[in-house]
Structure formats: C-alpha cells, structure tokens
Write a structure and sequence with these properties.
globular; MetI-like fold; mainly alpha; 75% helix
Length: 337
C-alpha cells in the first residue's frame, strides 16, 4: 500500500501541472480586461501601463512559469514562515499571486474566507453522510416498506430541486414566515460564549440543511443499491445459516462490503460539494470561498479565479487517491503491491 501511494503521488505531480496549464490557458483566453471596470475617462496609454504593471505584457509561457513559481514555491514557503515564525530564503522579495482587484495575496484571501466555508460545507457533508448511510441501510433491509418509499421520495426531491430554489424556499418558510432562523449568515460573529455559540448554530441550520439534502439524496441511493446487491450474496446466507445474529450479519459483513463503492461517491463528492456551496453561499450571503469566486468572476480577477479553480482540481485529484487507498482498507481482497 505504501509503494502504491508513493507511485500515485509521483504521478499526481505531472497531472496537476498539466491541469494548471490548461486552467491558465483557458482563463487567459477569456475576454476579460482588468481595466474594464475603470472609469472611461482614463486614457488608453494609462490603461496599457496598468496592464503592464499586472504582468499582462509578457508572453504566456513566461506568465505561466511565474505563476507556477509563486503558487508552488513561494506560497508554501510563506506558509512555513507564518507557521514557524522564521524567515526562509528570500522572504522579503518573494513574489506572490496577487488579486488584480485588491492587490492582496490570493492565498491570504482564501485562508480568510475558508473558515466560513468549512463551517457550512464541512458540517453539511458530515450531516449528509450521517443521515445517508443509515437511511440507505434501512431502506435496503426493509425494501418497499413505507420507510423505503419515504426515503425514495426525499432522495428524488434532493436530486430534483436545485439549491438556489430550496435555499430561497427555506428562507421564506423558516426565516420570513416563522422567524426561527436568520436569513443572512453573519460572518463577523465570533464564538466566545454559549450565547454566541447558539447564534452560530442557528445561522448554520438552513445553509447546512440545504446542502445536506443533496448529499443525503445521492449517498443514500448508492448505499441502498450496494446493500441490495450484497444482501443476496452467498456469504450472507452462510452467515445466517451458522446462526449469527441478524445485526451482526447486517452491520459487520454486509455493511463493510457495501461501503466499498460508496467510498468513491463520498470521496469524490467533497470537491463537488464545494462547487455546490458557491450557489448556497450566494443565497445565504455566506462570505466564503464560493462568494469569493463569484466576486472574482464578476470583477475579471483572473489570478483569483485561476487559483481557486486549481484548488478545486487539487481536491479532486487528492480525494481520488484517498478513495483508492480506502478500497484496500475496506476490502482485504484488494492489494496494490
């Protein structure tokens, strides 16, 4: 397993470089101008100087190489400096990926927004998995029962209803009509005592449930289908014939084998849930990285959009590797070495 992981990590480096090059080229070809939002009274020569100051006067290979140096070398060194309070080589003159709109380092903007996204997205995914696995198990064990029918209905709703509609719907019902939860997420709230903690929980309920509904709908259907496949296997009948308890057969033998295909869905769904949070953050005014990406697209902030898009690609590649490793842990028959 260790050798396989090292081989995959070595293969990941050229894959990520290729992905970053494609992202850089596509966004560079976009018809966006960083001076497009400036007043029309600014002379053309001044606009051209502004473009040159942003590095747009250089050839594409040079700009891509500088971006790679800034993102893969300078930014990790800067993180090391902040973590260990040391100044590594060239820390004062180190070039960083900067936003065209704010001239602030892009990584600092992402780190500033990340806690808000993790509070909402991370919690929604955990809640979705906690709900989806038992729903899928019970629906498969009690196939065609009222519980299975209800689970199927909820899953179809979760698949069919987009987050921008369900988000507005829960705001109208639970915030406007009932007044139970705030309609806007307060990103300035700091949890310092029990009251502020409860306020944080109250403002998280609606965006978390909107995202968790989609996660539950997807994973519960995969869990149900995988459980149904394994419940009819010979080893299940053999375990029952030996007199094992039904809970042991279901939760030890069937559940472990059924989790193997579901692991892929869970692992690959983490980057997807970050993408889905872009709309949810806009609906609930959560000042996270999804909202930051929308601001970058609207303002033609290419360095910001490039960095965020590449981070999403890194998440996809990384969780692909995690899913493959978990295969070998869940199924002893799978060996990579």
């Amino acid at each position: 397993m260790l050798n396989y992981t090292l081989r995959r990590l070595m293969f990941t480096v050229p894959v990520l470089l290729f992905i970053s090059f494609i992202i850089f080229i596509i966004l560079d070809m976009a018809p966006n101008d960083p001076t497009g939002n400036l007043p029309m009274t600014i002379p053309p020569d001044v606009r051209e100087k502004i473009r040159e100051s942003l590095g747009l006067g250089q050839p594409l290979p040079v700009r891509y190489f500088k971006w790679c140096v800034q993102f893969f070398i300078n930014e990790p060194l800067n993180i090391i400096d902040k973590m260990f309070d040391v100044c590594t080589w060239g820390c004062e003159d180190r070039l960083r990926v900067r936003s065209w709109a704010t001239r602030s380092p892009v990584v600092d903007l992402i780190v500033e927004r990340m806690p808000q996204t993790l509070w909402v997205v991370g919690m929604s995914y955990v809640v979705g998995i906690i709900l989806a696995v038992p729903i899928g198990v019970i629906s498969a064990y009690k196939q065609y029962s009222w519980f299975d029918q209800a689970g199927t209905f909820v899953s179809m709703v979760g698949f069919s209803v987009p987050s921008f509609f369900s988000g507005v719907l829960v705001i109208v019902i639970f915030s406007v009509q009932l007044g139970w939860f705030p309609s806007i997420y307060d990103t300035t709230l700091k949890v310092v005592d029990w009251d502020t903690f409860m306020m944080q929980i109250r403002q998280m309920v609606m965006p978390v449930m909107v995202l968790a509904l989609q996660t539950t709908a997807q994973i519960s259907r995969f869990m149900r289908a995988s459980m149904l496949d394994n419940l009819n296997m010979d080893y299940v009948r053999t375990a029952r014939a030996k007199g094992m308890k039904e809970t042991t057969v279901l939760l030890v033998h069937v559940l472990r084998n059924s989790l193997i295909p579901v692991v892929t869905v869970i692992a690959l769904g983490i980057p997807a849930i970050f993408g889905g949070a872009i709309i949810t953050e806009a609906v609930f005014k959560v000042n996270g990285i999804g909202q930051l990406l929308i601001i970058g697209i609207q303002g033609a902030d290419i360095p910001l959009v490039q960095t965020l898009t590449f981070i999403f690609a890194v998440l996809i590649v990384m969780f692909n590797l995690i899913a493959d490793i978990l295969y070998g842990i869940l199924d002893p028959r799978i060996r990579y070495d």
